[in-house]
Amino acid sequence: MRFYEVMDTFTKCGFASVTIVNSYLIFLTVFHIKRVTGTYKAMVLIFSTIGIMFSSWELIARPFVHNYNKGFIFFSLNTWLEVPQKFLQVALVIYASFYLWMVSLIAVQFLFRYYTLVNPRIAKKFSGKGVGVWLLYSFFCGLVYGSLVFYFGQPDEYSDEYMKEEMIQTYGLAVDEIPRILMIPYDSDGSIRINVLFLILGGLDVAVQYTIIIYCGLRMHIVMTREFARCSIPNKKLQKQFFRALIVQTVVPTILFVFPALFVLFCPLLDMEMHFQTGWIYAALSLYPPIDSLAFMILISEYRRVTKELLKLIFPDKPRQVANGSATLAKTG
């Protein structure tokens, strides 16, 4: 199956769903939710907004990836924008940056929730000017990752020639006519090319975020197990809900994107024969923002309660009212 031919549908569905779901989450958080406050409220709003931006940018970048033997090509399927090839190449880089930006924001949320439990004084530093600091940190992580993709993934004569025949046979595309990023770690004589530095440094960027997430997640679990007997029941319940929401925020992109991406990124190092349209991982990733927001609203009980109240206002229980009215008339008669 030529999966790239249905990517447009996945991209548009992802954009529509995340726009609706995240806009609703933002609406509830701003106007109705009372227990998500302060710094964490800012984190929820920023993360939801970035999710919409991410899906919107995917419509422009239209990313796809193909693995072939000892290399892979990250290219754009955008055919509706009449812009220079360089613009869409940069669009691909920005798309890659968005992913690391989002993962690093999740790491920041884990840090904040951890210090809220064990050291509220440090947690207060995440507010005020601290918002700018952690937002800049997460943006910087994404910027570093995107810069590595751009610098080490520039096409050259060898990489284009290596992918030329494969792209024509699989997609009917001339490799030098499409916006592309190429990663081929080995030269024709088997020597290591500079591309391999992206795999090392980019992998380190991702590893830092997951180290923060795993460490804080384990520590939070220990604290909640040992210390929550001292907390009031409402606070205990809310903290557990926040923790579960953070776990979902981490597990979903890890399953949908990180594990498959490890295959895409590191298989070329094995120098083995392969021929895969691995761009399906971007279709999976497009589902992440709406799934994340839905899970958050389901796990935090206040969002469920407010949603039920809004649904009752929109769809009042008229049959019951009529039945009650009939019963009253019968008694009067």
UniProtKB/TrEMBL annotation:
UniProt keyword list: Membrane, Transmembrane, Transmembrane helix
Record protein name field: Seven TM Receptor
Taxon lineage: Eukaryota, Metazoa, Ecdysozoa, Nematoda, Chromadorea
Keyword set includes Isomerase: no
Gene: Cnig_chr_IV.g13714
InterPro entries (UniProt xref): 7TM_GPCR_serpentine_rcpt_Str
Stretches that traverse the bilayer: 15-33, 40-60, 87-112, 133-153, 196-218, 242-266, 278-300
Source organism superkingdom: Eukaryota
Database matches in Pfam families: 7TM_GPCR_Str (PF10326)
